[in-house]
């Protein structure tokens, strides 16, 4: 488990920010030393064992730890679950996403789960029940302004939970949840060895079989958290109908709908499934991107398509160990035009967002061209076009002429299309050209190749960062290097149409930031620097990793600045915490204090928002 | 002596025959020369004599190639220049310059190749320059080298750097101007301008039904307001594409996404066949007569478009094997041309605009935070001389705008 320093710092500070100093100190120790028992933690962190246990308890509750019991000593050893710790920063985004797709009720449940950590369903139900009772008994007739509850009944809670579980946003905790991936893998290895290969593995064939069995075992472990979902799917007769109600629960979904949901096993412990949440966030990001490149109507269509498509995608990046060997799973899901059409709101005008031109100047065959196969893994950034599609072109242009002449006869210069056809226009636009948002994989079937698409988006993000640091000329030079490979200064100069002085200055600038690098190629054994050839090149992977580190570091800085501000305004903040002041700060505090208080809140909001925005970049670079 | 006369005649005949058979770049082998049927009975000895005389008179230039000796002819004027030179040193220097052709030759190269004393070579060059046979030139690739070229030749594109150079300097102003024009051209040709205009076409809703109704009787209220188009419509098919598209989109556009009255660029449907190609752009530039004293070849324009592509401003789209270009991030593009934007730009309103082409890069959180542009980022650490807690950039970022706000509120 290698974690870069910046990430470790960031996670520790996030824990500090959310759960206080004690857990943060324990966490920092774990980051520094790796897997530790309670005794060792207390030794290294100079905390008493009791304090350490308290800290661990909080961390465990929020799923921020892995633990395993050492077979020899019988002591539990703890290590950090840094992915989960980092995901804390996405809390806001996840809540917003749930709010958008499942309404405020869904968000409320999600929020409580985030606050509580993993929770037994019965506890959650009891807590809500208490709240509902409180409001109902609290002299409802006396107090007009009783707080509006997002969840009004147990049945509704149950139904919301069912929705979220079906969407995989919530999953179940099982015995292996608290083991690190590595630990689980080791265990599965051992089991497989014991059961099938007691005599050891001999030969390549056995090796392959061994790997398959391990992958199978791992998959089984992974599936365990989906038990509730499966159960729901089994008596899922109602789920079809229910889907119609999704999103409308705010306007009081009909009671009977809720009754149809099977009661969830109250003993199950649930938690938020970040993997799936990240899938949803990725879709959001993609839609944003389409909004920028092609327009909002197309972006909306794309959003609907992704919603359909990602229903059965549980994680953004497939595990090389588990998923490599299952070709049947690899068949990417696709959606048909009609499926999308069913979901598009009737209020959306699909004629918007695309220019209207006579169909004469559109080549139908080119637009409708099918690409049934996913693109091969090409070397990223090397010149990708011009390669494979030329031979087919000849055939197409012929049939094209025919089509055009036919079109001309019917004298409607601008084709007025039916709604499905309008929708198709958006999808075709998405499918055309770079960066391949959608692949038209069959007649009226659409799919998305996430891997190359995300690779392209990553490059775009890097480009925009380069453009902001080094200007458009810097971007130009980097993109030339990316497409052409290593280049000498002369070649670079003639390709970029830049003055030698400007070019050298720009390259130097980018060399310092780490976007570009030089390589020295000596002409002879003496390696005389005067005679050596110097080549410029850019290492994109390295640029990514340095950017990722920078993102973490910037978040750390934001949190540190926030802490400094908090210290500075300590007196005001402690005043605002007093129960008689809380909620009516403006009236109770002196003007000067209130101004400081408001300023602090503003700064806090700004810094938090900034962190979320940095997370946008970071997530794109490493998680999507 | 009859023999000598005969050789004289043969010499002239062979020279003329060689001239007829190719340019002064063509190399003739012995076989080629014999096949011209000038030398009687394929007499090799005679041919040798004739060629020797031609070479002496500088009318033929000998070459050694992989397949053996060969010759090419030289014009009589040039030959005369050679023969008029006083001594062989000067002749050799002139020959070197002559060989180098339009690329020119570096004086050090002449010196090294001829193994000549410095002073002697200088003397030769001076003589030749005075005579007006050679001239010094500048090469953009090696601006510090002293180069010479035959006086009656124009330096090659490689030496001058092609159309992008003026007097050995890269003409960035010219390039930039031209880029803007090309960019505007591509923008205009690859997008659709939706005038989110106010001309109300009532009830042109989203529903397919509405659209179909329009299809049936297009005379009703489809056309955008001010100018009466009805005659045009009755003519039916004769309308231009621009007009047609106007009446169709102008109305629905303001419904949701656009602020009324503001034109907006929209992408064209997939499979659009007329995205401008490089040759389209070259034609446009040629006809517009923007570059009246330089001719730009298609390759030059390609270079220009490539730079736009590397800048992330345009992207290639392939439709039926035809590689056209369109601008990127269409909805964000400003419908005005670069020049218009420059004129409209108010420098007092702050913000240094480096380019009027395209769109600002999309904002990223990292660059917005002070750390993204921090010059001392690498040494910033809590406890160090520069740390987040004493960071001036953060202070400015968080407090700076508040100071401004207060000023405004007063």
Automatic annotation (TrEMBL), chain B:
Major location (coarse): nucleus
Residue ranges with Gly residues bias: 197-211
GO CC entries: RNA polymerase III complex
GO terms (BP aspect): transcription by RNA polymerase III
Nucleotidyltransferase in keyword set: no
Keywords recorded for this protein, A-Z: DNA-directed RNA polymerase, Nucleus, Transcription
Residue segments, region Disordered: 197-268
The organism's place on the tree of life at top rank: Eukaryota
Compartments it resides in: Nucleus
Gene3D superfamilies: Winged helix-like DNA-binding domain superfamily/Winged helix DNA-binding domain
InterPro entries assigned: RNA_pol_Rpc34, RNA_pol_Rpc34-like, WH-like_DNA-bd_sf, WH_DNA-bd_sf
Function of the protein: DNA-dependent RNA polymerase catalyzes the transcription of DNA into RNA using the four ribonucleoside triphosphates as substrates. Specific peripheric component of RNA polymerase III which synthesizes small RNAs, such as 5S rRNA and tRNAs.
Similarity comment text for this entry: Belongs to the eukaryotic RPC34/RPC39 RNA polymerase subunit family.
Name of the protein: DNA-directed RNA polymerase III subunit RPC6
Organism: Neurospora crassa (strain ATCC 24698 / 74-OR23-1A / CBS 708.71 / DSM 1257 / FGSC 987)
């Amino acid at each position: 488990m290698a974690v870069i320093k910046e990430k470790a710092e960031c996670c520790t500070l996030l824990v500090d920010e959310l759960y206080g100093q004690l857990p943060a100190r324990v966490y920092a120790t774990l980051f520094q030393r790796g897997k530790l028992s309670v005794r060792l933690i207390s030794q290294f962190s100079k905390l008493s064992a009791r304090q350490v246990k308290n800290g661990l308890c909080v961390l465990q509750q929020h799923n921020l730890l892995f633990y395993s019991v050492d077979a020899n000593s019988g002591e539990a050893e703890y290590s950090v679950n840094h992915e989960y710790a980092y995901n804390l920063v996405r809390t806001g985004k996840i809540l917003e996403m749930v709010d958008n797709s499942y309404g405020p009720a869904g968000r409320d449940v999600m929020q409580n789960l985030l606050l509580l950590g993993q929770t037994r369903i019965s506890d959650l139900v009891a807590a809500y029940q208490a709240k509902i009772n409180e409001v109902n008994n609290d002299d409802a007739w006396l107090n007009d302004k009783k707080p509006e509850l997002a969840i009004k009944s147990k049945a509704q809670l149950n139904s919301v939970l069912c929705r979220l579980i079906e969407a995989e946003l919530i999953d179940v905790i099982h015995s292996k949840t608290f083991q690190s991936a590595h630990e689980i893998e080791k265990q599965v290895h051992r089991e497989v060895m014991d059961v099938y290969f007691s005599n050891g593995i001999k030969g390549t064939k056995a090796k392959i079989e061994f790997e398959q069995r391990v992958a199978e075992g791992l998959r089984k472990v992974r599936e365990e958290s989906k038990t509730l979902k499966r159960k729901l799917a089994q008596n899922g007769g109602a789920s079809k109908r229910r889907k119609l109600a999704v999103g409308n629960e705010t306007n009081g979904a009909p009671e009977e709908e809720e009754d149809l949901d099977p009661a969830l096993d109250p003993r199950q412990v649930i938690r938020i499934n970040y993997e799936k949440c990240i899938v949803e966030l990725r879709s959001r990001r993609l839609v944003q991107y389409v909004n920028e490149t092609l327009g909002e109507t197309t972006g909306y269509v794309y959003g609907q398509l992704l919603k359909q498509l990602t229903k059965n995608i549980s994680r953004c990046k497939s595990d090389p160990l588990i998923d490599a060997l299952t070709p049947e799973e690899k068949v990417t899901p696709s959606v048909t035009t009609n499926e999308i059409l069913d979901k598009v709101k009737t209020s959306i005008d699909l004629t918007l967002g695309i220019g209207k031109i006579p169909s004469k100047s559109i080549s139908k065959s080119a637009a409708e061209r099918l690409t049934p196969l996913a693109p091969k893994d090409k070397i990223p950034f090397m010149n990708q076009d011009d390669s494979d599609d030329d031979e087919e072109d000849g055939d197409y242009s012929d049939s094209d002429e025919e089509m055009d002449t036919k079109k001309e006869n019917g004298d409607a210069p601008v084709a007025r299309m039916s709604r499905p056809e309008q929708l198709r226009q958006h999808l075709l636009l998405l499918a055309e050209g770079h960066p391949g948002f959608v692949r038209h994989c069959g007649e009226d079937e659409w799919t998305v190749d996430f891997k190359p698409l995300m690779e392209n988006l990553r490059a775009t993000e890097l480009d925009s960062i380069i453009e902001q640091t080094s200007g458009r000329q810097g971007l130009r030079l980097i993109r030339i290097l990316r497409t052409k490979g290593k280049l000498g200064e002369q070649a670079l100069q003639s390709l970029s149409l830049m003055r030698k002085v400007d070019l050298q200055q720009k390259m130097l600038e980018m060399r310092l930031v780490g976007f570009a690098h030089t390589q020295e190629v000596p002409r002879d054994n003496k390696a005389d620097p005067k005679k050596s050839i110097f080549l410029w090149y850019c290492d994109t992977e390295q640029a990514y990793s340095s950017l990722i580190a920078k993102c973490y570091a910037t978040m750390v800085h934001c949190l540190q600045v926030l802490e400094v501000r908090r210290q500075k305004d300590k007196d005001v903040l402690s005043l605002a915490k007093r129960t008689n002041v809380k909620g009516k700060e403006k009236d109770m505090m002196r003007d000067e204090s209130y101004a400081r208080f408001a300023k602090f809140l503003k700064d806090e909001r700004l810094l938090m928002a900034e962190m979320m925005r940095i997370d946008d970049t970071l997530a794109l670079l490493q998680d999507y | 002596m009859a023999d000598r006369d005969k050789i004289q005649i043969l010499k002239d005949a062979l020279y003329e025959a060689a001239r007829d058979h190719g340019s002064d770049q063509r190399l003739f082998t012995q076989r080629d020369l014999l096949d011209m049927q000038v030398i009687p009975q394929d007499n090799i000895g005679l041919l040798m004599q004739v060629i020797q005389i031609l070479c002496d008179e500088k009318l033929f230039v000998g070459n050694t190639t992989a397949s053996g000796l060969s010759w090419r002819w030289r014009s009589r004027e040039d030959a005369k220049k050679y023969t008029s030179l006083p001594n062989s040193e000067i002749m050799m220097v002139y020959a070197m310059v002559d060989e180098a052709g339009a690329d020119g030759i570096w004086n050090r190269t002449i010196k090294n190749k001829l193994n000549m004393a410095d002073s002697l070579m200088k003397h030769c060059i001076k003589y030749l320059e005075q005579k007006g046979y050679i001239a010094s030139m500048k090469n953009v690739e090696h601006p510090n080298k002293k180069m010479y070229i035959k006086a009656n030749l124009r330096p090659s594109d490689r030496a001058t750097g092609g159309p992008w150079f003026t007097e050995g300097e890269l003409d960035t102003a010219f390039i930039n101007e031209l880029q803007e024009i090309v960019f505007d051209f591509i923008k205009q040709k690859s997008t659709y301008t939706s005038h989110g205009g106010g001309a109300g076409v009532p009830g042109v809703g989203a529903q397919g039904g509405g659209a179909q109704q329009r299809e049936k009787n297009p005379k009703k209220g489809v056309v955008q307001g001010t100018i009466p188009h009805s005659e045009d419509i009755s003519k039916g098919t004769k309308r231009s594409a621009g007009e047609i598209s106007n009446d169709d989109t102008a109305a629905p556009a303001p419904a949701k996404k656009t602020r009324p009255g503001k034109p907006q660029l929209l992408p064209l449907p997939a499979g659009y066949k007329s995205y401008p190609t490089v040759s389209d752009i070259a034609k446009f530039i040629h006809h517009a007569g923007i570059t009246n004293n330089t001719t730009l070849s298609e390759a030059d324009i390609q270079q220009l478009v490539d730079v736009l592509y590397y800048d992330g401003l345009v992207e290639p789209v392939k439709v039926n094997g035809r590689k056209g270009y369109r601008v990127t991030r269409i909805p964000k593009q400003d419908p005005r041309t670069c020049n218009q934007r420059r004129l409209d730009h108010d420098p007092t309103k702050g913000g240094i605009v480096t380019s009027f082409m395209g769109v600002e890069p999309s904002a990223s959180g990292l660059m917005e935070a002070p750390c993204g542009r921090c010059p001392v980022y690498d040494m910033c650490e809590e406890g160090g001389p520069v740390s987040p807690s004493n960071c001036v950039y953060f202070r400015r970022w968080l407090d700076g705008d508040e100071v401004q706000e207060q000023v405004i509120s007063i």
